[in-house]
Write a structure and sequence with these properties.
The protein is of the alpha/beta class and 174 residues long. It contains four helices and eight strands. Helix content is 26%, strand content 21%. Helix 2 runs parallel beside helix 4 and helix 3 crosses helix 4.
């Protein structure tokens, strides 16, 4: 949703997954000094309005590539016009936010998951994701297992594009 489409009574999500009501908006005609906040490489962040943190997502579409860290993920991201989160110091927050943004009709984000080199990939998407989620539940998994758990918890596994050897797979969760 564009900021210009917001109106009194609309609700925004806070940092505690509660909603915050908009009490009013003001539109200005003519020329005025306006300020735009752009945060490089971080597309979703919180701003504080009064005493309330509000989740903000930059305009435009973001395409995130996830999977096992390394050169293969970098190559996968470049081939698919995506970016990795390997230099994102708050990657957990970014992935959690992506998983939750996918709940909306026009989330402004696309997630492609490279399953190459993951245990169980030879048995298909459902198997490799299931094994990953089990490792995470047993607290013996790594970052990739936690990322998939975020999408499971948000109910958005069905909105991810899964790839094996560069080929998009049928998503068994959609």
């Amino acid at each position: 949703m564009d900021a210009g489409d917001l109106s009194a009574g609309d609700r925004l999500r806070s940092d505690h997954s509660t909603s915050v009501g908009i009490s009013g908006t003001v539109n200005y005609a003519g020329t005025r000094t306006m300020y735009d906040l752009t945060v490089d490489r971080i597309h979703t962040y919180y701003v504080v309005v009064g005493n309330t943190p509000v989740l903000v997502h930059n305009c435009g579409d973001q395409h995130v590539a996830l999977g096992l860290e390394g050169d293969a993920l970098d190559d996968f991201a470049k081939k698919n016009g995506a970016e990795t989160l390997m230099n994102d110091t708050d990657w957990r927050g970014t992935v959690w936010t992506a998983a939750n943004l996918l709940k909306f009709d026009n989330p402004g984000i696309r997630v492609s998951f490279n399953l190459d080199s993951m245990h169980g990939v030879e048995d298909g998407v459902a198997s490799v994701v299931g094994q990953s989620l089990l490792r995470n539940a047993r607290q013996i998994g790594g970052a990739t297992d936690l990322e998939l758990a975020f999408f499971r918890d948000a109910g958005t596994l069905g909105k991810i594009d899964f790839y094996v050897e560069g080929i998009k797979q049928i998503n068994p969760f959609s």
